[in-house]
Design brief:
By secondary structure, the protein is an alpha+beta fold. It is built from two helices and five strands, in the order H-E-E-E-E-E-H. It has helices at residues 2-14, 84-95; strands at residues 17-21, 26-31, 37-48, 52-59, 71-78. Strands 1-2-3-4-5 form a five-stranded antiparallel beta sheet.
Length: 102
């Protein structure tokens, strides 16, 4: 029983995501310590508040997904998920308008 809790505590400490976003609203979402990643397009401007940022993403279809329809996802990033400097930097990046046609 103790080993289950120890494993869960270790897994929780290693949990995380890496988010990459360019000025055109395209990006990549990758789970930390995972090999694969998921490409996305930011289809609407993000909602940026002092408490959280909300991103509206459309995931690119992949070969694992048999459907060719892209999936829409909402990604919420709360202020306590990042340190103060990183959260301010993210808010500045998301507040800039992006050119979806470029």
């Amino acid at each position: 029983m103790l080993s289950v809790f120890a494993y869960q505590a270790y897994a929780l400490s290693q949990w995380g995501w890496e988010l990459r976003l360019n000025s055109r609203g395209e990006g990549e979402l990758k789970r930390i310590l995972a090999v694969d990643s998921q490409s996305f397009i930011q289809d609407k401007p993000a909602i940026v508040t002092p408490i959280m940022c909300v991103l509206f993403l459309t995931l690119a279809s992949d070969s694992v997904n048999s459907e060719n329809t892209p999936k829409s996802r909402t990604l919420m990033i709360f202020v306590d998920m990042l340190n103060d400097t990183d959260y301010r930097h993210l808010c500045r990046l998301l507040s800039q308008p992006f050119n979806s046609n470029a």
